[in-house]
Design a protein that fits this description.
The protein is an alpha/beta fold and 246 residues long. The protein contains nine helices and eleven strands. The protein has two domains: 112 residues, Rossmann fold (3-Layer(aba) Sandwich), CATH 3.40.50; 124 residues, Rossmann fold. Helix 4 links the parallel strand 5 and strand 6.
Length: 246
């Protein structure tokens, strides 16, 4: 069956330079974008139940802009003063620059990695006397806490936001040839919104082993998987599949 339409369970790319648009043009495809999950902050009441005292920490580890937003949100709600002496450890330079939304960047002690936590961890190890707080989602990779523990870093996890299913009711009567998922939460959202979902001829594409496992766990058929040896990206995997169908 010829592929004509694809639904990508992520926000629409901010620029027209996305490889998805190149793919759509090359193969005359309709490619839509729609996040299947959304982020909501934990309430001040919920956070208090965790008994985490933000003010007792001297450094913060940020792995995303979302973590930054919710850290400063909870500080404002709980009336925690922003300590000028806090040190900020960010997984990448772009995330570090995002701090300008909340603090005077040039007056703060900010350290940034090259995009990997292993790289950032080397900077963290050089500050053994700091007490770190790590803002995270309720669904997060265990890499960060595991590696911090192994390195004997004094840290506290702070669950400040959660990933929940988005309302997809407007897609009830919309059909696509391929559904593209990037997280187990996206797969769960599909089935939560449409408990009577029958895959039939719809192909499912996933990125990463955890997402692929979620599809199989829910007894769905996995048709396209990335990354792969000859398809390191999702768009490469999609193109490879589309070519094979011709």
């Amino acid at each position: 069956m010829k592929i004509k339409s694809i639904l990508v369970s992520q926000p629409k790319p901010a620029t027209e330079k996305s490889p998805y648009f190149d793919l759509a043009k090359k193969y005359n495809l309709k490619i839509d974008f729609r996040p299947f999950v959304q982020v909501e902050g934990v309430s001040m009441k919920e956070f208090r139940c965790c008994k985490v005292d933000v003010a007792q920490h001297s450094a913060i580890i940020f792995n995303s802009r979302t973590a930054i937003d919710h850290f400063f949100r909870i500080c404002e709600e709980m009336k925690v003063a922003i300590n000028d002496a806090w040190k900020y450890f960010c997984i990448s330079e772009s995330i570090a620059f995002y701090l300008q939304k909340y603090v005077v960047y040039r007056k703060r002690k900010i350290f940034c990695g090259n995009g990997t936590f292993d790289d950032l961890l080397e900077l963290i190890k050089k500050n053994p006397d700091e007490k770190f707080i790590v803002p995270l989602s309720d669904i997060h990779k265990q890499e960060i806490p595991s590696k911090l523990t192994k390195a004997n870093i004094d840290f506290t996890k702070a669950i400040l936001y959660r990933t929940v299913s988005a309302d997809l009711s407007d897609l009830k009567d919309v059909n696509y040839d391929i559904l593209v998922f990037f997280s187990p939460a996206g797969v769960a959202s599909l089935l939560q919104n449409f408990p009577e979902f029958h895959q039939n001829g719809t192909r499912i594409a996933t990125f990463g082993p955890a997402t692929a496992n979620a599809v199989e766990t829910h007894s769905l058929r996995l048709d396209i998987q990335a990354p792969a040896t000859k398809a390191p990206s999702m768009t490469a995997a999609l193109e490879q599949y589309i070519k094979a169908q011709k």
